Amino acid sequence: MRNPKDRSKGTEGKGKGTERFKALVRIAERYLKDYTEGKRHDHDKAEVALRVLSVYRRILKIEKERAKVRLEWRNLLASIAELKRPSETKKRVSKKPAHHLLGEA
Fold first, then answer.
1. Does position 8 have pLDDT exceeding 70, yes or no?
2. Per-residue pLDDT for 14 more than 80?
3. Residue 55 class from Cβ within 10 Å (0-12 exposed, 13-18 middle, 19+ buried)?
4. If you count Cβ atoms within 10 Å of the first and of the last residue's Cβ in the chain, which end, N or C, has fewer?
5. Biggest distance spanned by C-alpha atoms of the chain
6. How many domains does the chain fold into?
7. Has residue 21 been placed in a domain?
């Protein structure tokens, strides 16, 4: 079970995936920078660095989508709660006998 105190204030919008990859992303970015400047020459390592950045970008997109889904879910739950309130009052009203409808005057 997660402890709410474990989360730092600066990472509320970011998920675990982005935090885990930060060091690897920095290394990949540095390697690609050196590779494009001609300081590194290993093409295979450059491809791996590109794949790391690609996966990182996909993780960011997924986390953004998850945040949108969570917000939409909260809004739906709030809407459902609003829908339930009037129906509960209607049930109470409908439980009363309607003597005036039966023709008893």
1. no
2. no
3. middle
4. N
5. 100
6. 1
7. yes
